[in-house]
Structure to design on (337 residues):
């Protein structure tokens, strides 16, 4: 991915004050990913070069006072069997979420160490912020995105109804951001998660012969944030970011993006798929790796079996502090900068 075309406040290769912009953290993550993670991903994708449909499934461990870290995990799954077959297989390997079991089946760990799933696990600062003045940052970004959509209503009139709907959504978001009670924490995390999801899907799109790629998220407060005013904000942002990143890679017409909508109540229809990122995010969040301490025995087999299984599992740390950085975490080895 070449981020030279993007600036923190828009695309520098366009005239006018509009564009889809990306925060600097994504450029840092991209630079780190290119060093070794991209090579490992390529080797994995080569094993499935016949696959044209892919799923990216995500889960989160955010703001849990009983956990050491905030983690987002993305699990890349090739569509090599029907949903029903995948659901049955994973249901046998992982009958319940991590928090509900006392022991993780060794067959599940073996499956994730050498099977068809590729996991990207990312640690985020718990006190993360995107700017010293986040309200100003978000309002400026919204302003530029609205201007971009208004530009598209003129240049691509076939999509005018969709653009107008998105403009209305963003104006509502601007009102929320500018209000005294605006939940900047949720808006911040929506930007981070949607940027990472779109980035990873665009990388898969550029590296393989993909026809359809889909994002399937665990049910989380981020998915329903101010839904009465904003609809499915995070899904809209993933769609816009994915389009922009693929356009930058000259892949804009290659793949169709689909997004799975979880039920608001009861079990999510793709719940067994979520148990993959749930296992890794929950374990990584619990792991006090500086002191090599875990809170429960069930996490030990996961760390021992998966954290060094790099051909299927990558780990990153994104630091949002004064020295913004993204590094690959290589357990017991060295760190890539």
């Amino acid at each position: 991915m070449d981020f030279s075309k993007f600036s923190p406040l828009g695309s520098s290769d366009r005239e006018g004050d509009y564009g889809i912009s990306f925060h600097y953290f994504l450029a840092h993550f991209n630079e780190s990913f290119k060093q070794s993670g991209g090579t490992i991903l390529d080797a994995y994708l080569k094993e499935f070069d016949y696959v044209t449909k892919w799923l990216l499934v995500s889960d989160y461990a955010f703001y849990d006072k009983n956990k050491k870290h905030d983690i987002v995990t993305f699990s890349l799954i090739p569509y090599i069997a029907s949903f029903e077959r995948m659901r049955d297989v994973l249901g046998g390997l992982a009958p319940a979420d991590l928090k509900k079991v006392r022991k993780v089946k060794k067959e599940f760990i073996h499956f994730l160490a050498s099977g068809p799933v590729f996991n990207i696990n990312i640690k985020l600062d718990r006190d993360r912020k995107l700017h010293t003045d986040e309200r100003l940052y978000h309002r400026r970004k919204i302003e530029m995105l609205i201007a971009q959509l208004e530009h598209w209503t003129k240049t691509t009139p076939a999509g005018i109804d969709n653009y107008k709907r998105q403009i209305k959504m963003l104006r509502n978001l601007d009102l929320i951001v500018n209000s005294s009670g605006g939940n900047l924490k949720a808006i911040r995390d929506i930007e981070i998660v949607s940027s990472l999801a779109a980035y990873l899907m665009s990388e898969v799109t550029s590296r393989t012969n993909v026809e359809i790629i889909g994002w399937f998220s665990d049910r989380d407060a981020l998915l329903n944030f101010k839904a009465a005013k904003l609809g499915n904000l995070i899904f809209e942002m993933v769609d816009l970011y994915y389009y922009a990143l693929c356009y930058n890679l000259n892949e804009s017409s290659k793949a169709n993006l689909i997004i799975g909508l979880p039920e608001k109540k009861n079990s999510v229809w793709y719940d067994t798929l979520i148990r993959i990122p749930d296992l890794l995010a929950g374990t990584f969040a619990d792991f006090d790796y500086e002191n090599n301490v875990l809170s429960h025995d069930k996490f030990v087999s996961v760390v021992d079996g998966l954290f060094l299984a790099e051909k299927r599992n990558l780990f990153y740390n994104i630091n949002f502090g004064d020295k913004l950085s993204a590094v690959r975490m290589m357990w017991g080895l060295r760190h890539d900068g």
